[in-house]
Amino acid sequence: MFSKTKIMKSIKDCWDKLNSADAIVVGIGAGMSTSAGLEYSGERFMKYFSDFNEKYGIKDMYTGGFYPFKTSEEYWAWWSRQIWYNRYLPEAEKVYKDLLEILKGKNYFIITTNVEHQVQKAGFSKDRLYYMQGDYGLWQCSTPCHNKTYDNEETVKKMLDEQKDMKIPSYLIPHCPVCKEEMTMNLRIDDRFVQDEGWYKANKNYNDFLEKYKDKNIVFLELGVGNNTPGIIKYPFWQMTYKNSNATYILINLNDASAPMDIENQTIGILGDISEILEKILENK
Ligand SMILES: [Zn+2]
């Protein structure tokens, strides 16, 4: 279906479009982190969570976060590992650095549903980033009684070091400094998600950027966005492309590089591994 020649031509087209665009909006989904090697299942999962697999039957890091652990000690033993091995331990992966290199000197803004902080680690400025689903590195009140988030690195490290038999010591269970209820992850999994000052600022910056370039020569570059939450990046990208005949929609995806017929002529779809494709785009620079 997708021949090599077609992919190479698409990569050249892709680079030309990025180069001539007034603005680029980059949408980054889970496929980007998978391509970076941050797999949530398989070998990598078993390396860090084989005991949880054996005792609770948990099969990957996506579902483990929703497991109804009976005690807070177990819950935080799970989460401290999930946070540490995905958020703090990994260095910035090459695929993110390549993206930074591609976008260097260009006018861009990034929206991501990923929560591992890889975009910031690669060196992108926070002012060009909307991390709308939260951040593994932040906690919030579970009630929530107030709209603030808290850095968790120090406590997470202690939880990691001091846990035994899949339980952290009780004294490490984090509590809200205001109402004393337990803290929880700052992740958009239900309506208790705290949107703090930084979140609102990023949200505004993103919307201002879209508004400013809505009828200009804009490129929507979608990287590894799957079908779990298409309403955040994919569908809006389709709609904004449809409404603006000067817009181009580029999507790079391992499994599905198709777009609706209405925007077919404005679409460049590249089926493949994001790391490899970004490397090839860089070769064109
Ligand atoms: Zn509270």
Automatic annotation (TrEMBL):
<dbReference type="InterPro" id="IPR026590">
    <property type="entry name" value="Ssirtuin_cat_dom"/>
</dbReference>
<feature type="binding site">
    <location>
        <position position="145"/>
    </location>
    <ligand>
        <name>Zn(2+)</name>
    </ligand>
</feature>
<dbReference type="InterPro" id="IPR050134">
    <property type="entry name" value="NAD-dep_sirtuin_deacylases"/>
</dbReference>
<keyword id="KW-0862">Zinc</keyword>
<protein>
    <recommendedName>
        <fullName>Deacetylase sirtuin-type domain-containing protein</fullName>
    </recommendedName>
</protein>
<feature type="domain" description="Deacetylase sirtuin-type">
    <location>
        <begin position="4"/>
        <end position="285"/>
    </location>
</feature>
<feature type="binding site">
    <location>
        <position position="176"/>
    </location>
    <ligand>
        <name>Zn(2+)</name>
    </ligand>
</feature>
<keyword id="KW-0479">Metal-binding</keyword>
<keyword id="KW-0520">NAD</keyword>
<dbReference type="InterPro" id="IPR029035">
    <property type="entry name" value="DHS-like_NAD/FAD-binding_dom"/>
</dbReference>
<feature type="binding site">
    <location>
        <position position="179"/>
    </location>
    <ligand>
        <name>Zn(2+)</name>
    </ligand>
</feature>
<feature type="binding site">
    <location>
        <position position="141"/>
    </location>
    <ligand>
        <name>Zn(2+)</name>
    </ligand>
</feature>
